[in-house]
Design goal:
2 helices, Glutaredoxin, single chain, alpha+beta, four-stranded mixed β-sheet, about 25% helix, about 120 residues, Thioredoxin-like_sf, binds FE2/S2 (inorganic) cluster
C-alpha cells in the first residue's frame, strides 16, 4: 500500500540498547560502571547530531543483557554488535562511527566469551 513501510524497512535504522541494570555486590553490573551517564550522553549526542528519529537511530534503556562480566555493555541492532565502553569518548566514537556511519568500533567490541 502506498505510504506504508514494508517489513523490510524497519522503523528505526539502528537501535542501541544500554543495560542499566543494578546487581548486588560483589556481582558485576552495568549500573555500577556509569551506565546511566553513558546512556544519557549517548542520547544527547545522537540528538545533537540529528540522528534521532524514525528511519534513523533510537537509544534505549535495557535491563540486564546477561553479559555482566563485560559491564558496562551496550548492543546495537539489527547488527547484533556488542560493546563494552569506558568513558564518554568511547560513546562518542560508537555514535559517530557505528550509529552514524555503520562502521563497527573494533577496539570496543565485547569479546565473544564474556557472559554473566
Ligand atoms: S547487569 Fe548489565 S548485562 Fe547484566
Amino acid at each position: 500500500m502506498a505510504g506504508m513501510s514494508s517489513p523490510a524497512q524497519p522503523y528505526f535504522q539502528r537501535h542501541i540498547f544500554f543495560c542499566l541494570n543494578e546487581r548486588a555486590a560483589p556481582q558485576a553490573c552495568c549500573a555500577g560502571h556509569g551506565a546511566q551517564e553513558a546512556f544519557a550522553h549517548c542520547k544527547k549526542r545522537v540528538k545533537e547530531l540529528g540522528l534521532a528519529g524514525p528511519g534513523k537511530v533510537r537509544v534505549n534503556k535495557a535491563g540486564c543483557l546477561d553479559r555482566c562480566q563485560g559491564a558496562p555493555v551496550a548492543v546495537v541492532y539489527p547488527d547484533g554488535v556488542w560493546y563494552s565502553y569506558v568513558d564518554h569518548e568511547d560513546i562518542d566514537e560508537i555514535v559517530e562511527s557505528h550509529l552514524k556511519n555503520g562502521q563497527v568500533v573494533e577496539r570496543l567490541l565485547l569479546p565473544a566469551d564474556v557472559g554473566r
